[in-house]
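Subject: complex prediction, re-run

Hi both,

The earlier run crashed halfway through, so I resubmitted it with identical inputs.
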Amino acid sequence: MTFDSLTFVVFLALTFVAYWATPSWTARKVLVLACSYVFYAAWNPFFVLLIVATTGFDWFAARWMNRTKVQVRRKAIMAASIAINLSALGFFKYAQFFADNAVDLLRVFSVDFKPLSLGILLPVGISFYTFESLSYVIDVYRKRIAVSKSLLDYSLYVTFFPHLVAGPILRYGDFSPQCLEPKSWRSAPVGRGLTLLVFGLALKVCLADLVFAPVADRVFALGAEPGFAESWLGGAAFSLQVLCDFGGYSLCAIGTALMFGFRFPMNFESPFGSVGIAELWTRWHMSLASWMRDYVLAPLGGYRKGRARGHLNVLITFVLVGLWHGAAWTFVLWGALHGVFLIGERLVRQYVWDFTKVRNAPARAMLAVATFGLFAFAAVLFRASSIGQAWAILTAMLSPWTRSALVPFEVTMVAIVAGAAMVGAQIRYGHLRGWDWLETWSVTPRAASIAVALLAVVLSPGLNPAFIYFQF
Amino acid sequence: MDRSWLKAWIPALLACSLLVGGYEWLLRSRGYALTVQDDMDLWSMQYDRLKLSPDAIALLGASRIAFGVDPALLSRELGGRPIAMLAVNGRYPLAALRALAEDEHFAGLVIVGIDARGMQRKHWDMQQEYFDHYRRRWTLARRIHRSLLTFVQERLVLARSSFSLVNVVERWISGVGMPLNEHVVVHADRIGLVDYRHPDLAWTRAKRVADLEAYYRDNHPVPADAWLSDLATVSGWIERIDKRGGRVVFFREPASGESLLLDEANFPRSLYWDAYARISPAVLIDFRDIPELTTFVLPDTSHIDGTDVPRFTIAFADLLKRRGLAPSSAIRR
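This time it finished cleanly. Structure:
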């Protein structure tokens, strides 16, 4: 069940009415939890058992760990929990990838082995809820948060349907206080939530699916041989498509949660207004970036153990960011390239020019466009179906003499105008964080923006492709 | 709920309703008719109908079946047996036959609308992605969505993807005007009714013939012996269905004029269709052998007009009954 389906409209309406009509706070939480399992079962009922099992295991493991005073035993419990969560993720997401690579490796040594087809179905959202579970257990181990006394609250943290399948990746420390305070219809930001939900849908169904995807799909089609201009166009269009698709999904999740009185963290904040890749990663998929910072980069030592080790730590972290996105070498290389960008940026800022200190608006705008260009360059690895295809397109991006005509003129024009407007707006208004500024608008601009978003949704009847991040 | 948001939402909804209503009126005034938009989910809903009864009827084929046989009327004519319209416009159906052979629960009647060209091995997989979609992505949630979408599309012209705001803007930029009126009304059970009374008929007919000429120019027919040899595999699929008590009928639907001449020049009936009829475990029916099926006018040389669909369906049902191919459920029991 995706946010842009009519099934979700019915599901949300029924859940919303039942939630606010239920007087008891505990009963409301039970209701939302049950509805969340129904929401998840819509993809594959079998995997509800998996999520229930891992939720229960982690909750009990954390409580056991909390009761134990012996440090070695605490560590062992945490390690067991991490191992079980990562084993489930590894089996469902990476087993086929490792099997394929093992077969390829054996072939290098002239051992011919029949390729294995494991036929494993990937549970939707497993990468997201596994990371939420891991952060909870690790934070309890580190005594940064109090252990959950309520299995209901913890289950809701893992399973609450708006964030269940594609984030934002929540932290229990942010979510648990919200489970303690009963929500009131009068004070709940329902109108704002509904508005964000519609804004998110407009980004997804209009801009991602109808404006940017048709460009990216043509440039990255198998057998297409894009030239210089269309390769850049494809990389840029795909970057904007992911922003509108995943950013749109995140906005839907944040808006839906608000309708139930829950607040989720922001996941995207004008990333293409960033000056430098380091800043971009503070605005792009923020919940994953901060998770990686806290649970991978920091434990590795960050830059505390010297410059060279710091660079290596950044590279390792971003290779894992890439691998988190998908079991393919293209994703690994995408992550590695971002790691290289970050290391290179750090060196440039240290030894050549600290461009982040530029205050002149046109110069900052040019730097932001250059940052977007780097992101679009790397995005080729994210979108390409093979390393060979990625190599061909990346080579074309560096070959100004190559030409192609894959994308019709009118499709190109619409994408360029929409893309320029989006990037321009993010550069101009990138300093506005969150959505609180929306509250400062008077009724007229609010009504106008809602009407435009509603029209964009209603007048974008497409073929309902899945959200890109559902595959992760 | 905060009143300031309520005050914003009410005028927004009003403005949106007015603009959407105006757009709908504009589209209708330009002659666009209400139609359900066919897709893999709508196809999957039809595939689910095969589970209603072990002796259900599967209608396979391409546009000639999809625009020629009314499943609801055929079902009534054949004593109420459930019928699934699985034909896909523009795609030959042998992948569907293979999938039904692999479906151990299916033991019904398969009607395969096809010609010798569509039986070439290179066309076998054209409908495979529909089955892949059914096996991998078809869920209850999609079923609910598709049912609701069908409900909306039966009431709003603008609910078709070709009328999206982005598509209209792109067409305006390229100077081609509003989307082409295809003059096909598709219903929830996937029957498509073509209206050939429109003024573009001469263009439609000329384009169809030109497309077929181009196809044969670029795709030389497989020699008859190789074609027959490949069909041994297809015979295996048919035998699997036969063993479970099902039947398979290959039906060469009506064609006329240049289309029929081109087909016959490239795939002479005696060398291809009739040769396979002699060795096939399926029943093969060529429309030219059935006098009542040769009386239909095919305005574009390949498809009947929507107004002829009931008459054609009844004639086809009579043919099946005469041949003993579709006894009703009651009789079978």
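Residues 40-332 of chain B form a domain with the Rossmann fold fold (CATH 3.40.50).

- K.
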